[in-house]
Design goal:
It is a single chain. By secondary structure, the chain is an alpha+beta fold. It has a 5-stranded antiparallel beta sheet, with helices on one face. Strand 4 and strand 5 form a beta hairpin.
Amino acid sequence: MLIYFVDWIMILVVMFLRRMAVSFSHSRRFLSSSSSNSSIDIAKAIDELNKEMESVFGEPPADSGLASSARNDVTAQEPELASREKREDTHGLTHIGSTGEAQMVDVSPKQSTKRTAVSSGKVLLGKQVFDLVLANQMAKGDVLSVAKIAGINGAKHTSSLIPLCHNIPLTHVRVDLTLNPKDFSVDIEAEASSTGKTGVEMEAMTAVSVAGLTVYDMCKAASKSIHITDIRLESKAGGKSGDWSREE
C-alpha cells in the first residue's frame, strides 16, 4: 500500500508541475520582454516533464502543444536575433543607429589628427565643346577658372549639402582642372585637408562634384550630351583607419 501511495503522490506532483508550466507559458505570452533563453528553458523543462510522465505511466503523454509552441517561439526569434547580430557586427555603417534610424556620428571620443583626402572625376565634353573651352570662347567665360572656385566653395559647404556630415574647419582645399585632348574631357582632382576628429573624404568628393557640375553649366548651351563620370576617392590619410590609396 505504501508503494502505491508513493506512486500516486509522484503522479500528482508531476501533473501539478505540468499544469504550472502550462500556466506559466500562457502568462508569458502577455509579457513584452520575453527572450529566446526563456523559451529554450521552457521547452527543455517540458521535455523533462514528459520523460518523467512516461516513466510513471509507461507511455508518453498526449502532446499539449506547449513544447512545440516553445520551440516555434525559438525558431521565430532566430531570424530576428540573426538580423540584430548582423547589424551589431556590421562595420562602417556608422550613420545607422541600433534600430536602423539615421544618426549623426558622435566623434567627441576621437583624437584630433591631421587628415587629408584626394578625389578625382572627369567631364566628357566632346570635340566641339572641348575646342571652345580650349579657346576660351564659351559665352559664360573662363570655364576652368569658374569651376575651380566653385569646387573650393563646394568643399566648404559639404556639411550643408550632405545631411549627416560634420561641419569641420578645413585648413586647405585644392581643385585642379586639366583639359585632356585624348578623350576631349576635363580631368578634375581635388584635395581637402583638416586637423580634427573626422575625415575629409566627403569634402574632397564634393569639390570634384561641384566643379564638374559647374563645367556642365558653363558649357550646356553648346551641348546637352556632356557627361560627368568617374567621381571617386583616390586616397586618404590620417584617422583611426589609417592611410588608404586606390593604387594599393
